[in-house]
Amino acid sequence: MNRATAIVLALAGAVTGLSATACGVQPTDVIPAGEAPDAHDSGRGSTQLTLYFRFDGQLAPVTRDQSDVITPSGALTTLFRGPDAAESAQGYYSALPVNAAPPSVNATANPVVVTLPYSMRVIPSSGLNQIACTTVAALSAAGDSPGTDGVRVVSTDGSTTITCGTS
Hints:
By secondary structure, the protein is α+β, with helices and mostly antiparallel strands. It has a domain at 48-162. The protein contains four helices and seven strands, in the order H-E-E-H-H-E-E-E-H-E-E. The strands form two sheets. It has a four-stranded mixed sheet with strand order 4-5-6-7, with helices on one face. Strand 4 (104-106) and strand 5 (112-115) form a beta hairpin. Helix 2 runs antiparallel to helix 4 (125-141). The chain is globular, with a radius of gyration of 23 Å. Residues 1-22 form the signal peptide. This is Sporulation and spore germination protein. Keywords: Signal.
């Protein structure tokens, strides 16, 4: 490479660098947003139960060891009991009505259907997210595909489809 080419390349790099900073884009540190819900397959017969509670205003996974095999119905029954004492002490809470009758689950439907035995009006969108993400995690733990169509929540006064992590 001759000297003229090197100078042109250096100037082009400098102009590119200056134009990138001139557009107002400022560098930032990584902004933590919490752990993303996932649907990894932990294998049929897993006893690692992942429940989704709220923590600092965000959806947050909590993993518990279970002696029983995980099912969506069992996971939702546990979810509706709320965080245990240790989880509550750490700041986890639920947007769901604690100790309310748990929903029923049709895991063979596409999308999966969770039926609440009461009005959906008692559950905010953040609570619906807890239901959707816990259902997806339970399906994965059971070795079943949660699909990509979300979770359909049906109640005595309507229905909605929730994709884990959205509201």
